[in-house]
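Is this the right way to post structure tokens for a design question? Let me know if I should format differently. Anyway, here goes:
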């Protein structure tokens, strides 16, 4: 963000508090603790689910994610799991994990990179295998599946159809 690397507040403060860096030796391309403190709370949604539910009671959500990515440190894809739990159960929203296979297949003829066709409002039986619900990131598919998600959501809004499949 803003031509700098932003790490979590805890990580950034630990760099300073543990003496790994000082404000005098702080790299120009790394956000300082003050810069991180000013914006990081906007990136954390866990405490915001009650406000989201109150302000957007009819929100529908599609979480688009790949099997691997720059923020997928583990097979259970914790950021997707956290968002799923908060949006589905904390807010009671309609939530889909990746677009329907029909939309994904419309964007690519290669069925081997299409995520499985799981219903909305369903989750992996075992979140340690959640990456299997993700799309393959080969052949530029991240952009393709983003477009598939937009197309599906546009159709659902137009038809006001929020069935699970």
């Amino acid at each position: 963000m803003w031509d700098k690397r932003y790490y979590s507040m805890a990580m950034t403060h630990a760099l300073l508090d543990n003496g790994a860096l000082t404000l005098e030796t702080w790299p120009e391309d790394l956000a300082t603790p003050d810069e991180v403190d000013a914006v990081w709370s906007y990136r954390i949604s866990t405490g915001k689910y009650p406000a989201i539910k109150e302000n957007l009671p009819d929100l529908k959500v599609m979480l688009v994610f790949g099997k691997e990515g720059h923020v997928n440190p583990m097979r259970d894809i914790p950021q997707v799991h956290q968002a799923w739990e908060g949006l589905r159960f904390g807010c009671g929203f309609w939530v889909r994990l990746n677009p329907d296979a029909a939309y994904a297949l419309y964007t690519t003829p290669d069925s081997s990179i299409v995520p499985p066709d799981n219903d909305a409002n369903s989750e992996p039986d075992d979140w340690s295998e959640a990456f299997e619900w993700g799309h393959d990131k080969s052949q530029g598919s991240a952009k393709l599946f983003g477009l598939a998600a937009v197309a599906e959501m546009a159709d659902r809004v137009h038809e006001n159809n929020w069935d699970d499949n």
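Format looks fine. Someone answered above. Worth noting: Residues 9-43 form one domain. The chain is about 40% helix and 5% strand.
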